[in-house]
Amino acid sequence: MNFFTQVPVHFINNVTPMWADIITFCATTLGVVMACGVLVFLIVRKFPYQHAFSTFEHFVKKASDIFTIFVASFGSYLLSVMFKNIFMIGRPAFYDVDLHPILNLTGFGFPSSHASFYGAMAVMLFFIDKEAGAFAIFTAFVIGVARIFAGVHSPVDILGGFILGILVAVVVDFVVEKLNDWKTA
Predict the structure, then answer these.
(1) Rounded CA gap, 128 and 60, in Å?
(2) Omega before 155 cis (within 30°)?
(3) What is the structure's pLDDT at 58?
(4) How distant, in Å, are the alpha carbons of 94, 106, 111, 129, 145 from that of 90?
(5) Could you report the per-residue pLDDT of 166-184, keeping only the tens digit for each?
(6) SS3 per-residue string spanning 18-57
(7) CA triple 171-164-19, angle to 5 deg
(8) From residue 60, how far is each of 18, 53, 90, 106, 124 by CA, in Å?
(9) Domains of the chain and CATH, by start
(10) Ranges of H-type helices in 27-154
(11) Vertex 76: Cα angle to 21 and 2 (nearest 5)
(12) What is the C-alpha R_g of the chain?
């Protein structure tokens, strides 16, 4: 089995119902939990400095951070959908008739839109707050691995999605930094 192009067929076909539920949760619902957690974190986090206009400045900073994560995540998602239609690489079940995936999805698999979306979200959060971002990166990794074990993506699909998400997050962060430099100059 080539690690980068195939999925663990024997494991997926023989998974117990309890593990199937855990994998399904991690591959689908955990992403929604992560996105909600990121949003709540950005809204309730505290800032160390205080002065007369700090409440307004904190609101603007929080809104700006939420907006940049939104732009990076959804921008990455839209690019992944565009690339799926360019590359037209099928999901693992398309190439292996012996595979019985836990989740039955159709359409193209490369690059993974989930990995791209959550990868961009996690990296943007890392640029904003290192500790919360590191936890989000771990969570995005768990989502990606769960989608491999659910049989809907190969490791290359997930890796491609993560790379796309990281690149989009880096570009968005660069643009935001340049805009901030321009605004303060």
Answers:
(1) 14
(2) no
(3) 77
(4) 6, 8, 10, 36, 18
(5) 999 999 999 999 988 887 7
(6) HHHHHHHHHHHHHHHHHHHHHHHHHHHCCCCCCCCCHHHH
(7) 135
(8) 45, 11, 43, 41, 17
(9) 9-179 (1.10.606.20)
(10) 30-44, 54-87, 92-95, 113-128, 130-149
(11) 55
(12) 19
Q: Kindly state the tokens that stand for 177.
A: 């930094």
- Rounded Cα distance between 76 and 140, Å, is 14
As a whole number of angstroms, the distance between CA 139 and CA 61 comes to: 25
Specify the length of the chain in residues: 185
46-71: per-residue pLDDT in tens? 776 666 556 667 788 888 999 999 99
- Short-list 130, 115, 113, 146, CA closest to 41: 130
pLDDT exceeds 90 at position 1: no
Both tokens assigned to 32: 């929604």
